[in-house]
Specification:
The structure is a single chain. The protein has 104 residues and is of the alpha/beta class. The protein has a single domain, classed as Formyl transferase, N-terminal domain (Rossmann fold, 3-Layer(aba) Sandwich), CATH 3.40.50.170. The protein has 3 helices and 4 strands, in the order E-H-E-E-H-E-H. Strands 3-2-1-4 form a 4-stranded parallel beta sheet.
């Protein structure tokens, strides 16, 4: 497989991407997957996404700026990222990310 047309696009939807256990697992997953076959994008509800410093390659990060509590705009923002990235695979992490991802 060569070229970005043959890469599978994976969008990871997370509530935050700060340094922590869940985020460490996502970093390890991205770092260990073949960059020639998979193109990753992070879709992060809030925070600064500090854990991206541990990624071994450039990964686009979409910080969605979620408001406190329920943010009715969030599914629309996620849907925009999914359209823009032409996601082949969507991976959600945590209950909130799953629910918002399903709605999007």
């Amino acid at each position: 497989m060569t070229g970005s047309d043959t890469q599978k696009s994976i969008v990871h939807i997370l509530p935050t991407f700060e340094v922590g256990g869940l985020e460490n697992g996502v970093v390890n997953l991205i770092n260990r997957m073949d960059g020639r076959r998979f193109r990753h994008t992070l879709c992060v509800f809030s925070g600064t996404a500090e854990a991206r410093a541990r990624l071994l390659r450039e990964v686009p990060v979409h910080l969605l700026g979620k408001r406190e509590g329920n943010d009715p705009r969030l599914p629309f923002r996620i849907a925009r990222v999914l359209r823009e990235t032409k996601a082949d695979i969507v991976r959600t992490y945590g209950w909130g990310a799953w629910l918002e991802g399903v709605i999007a």
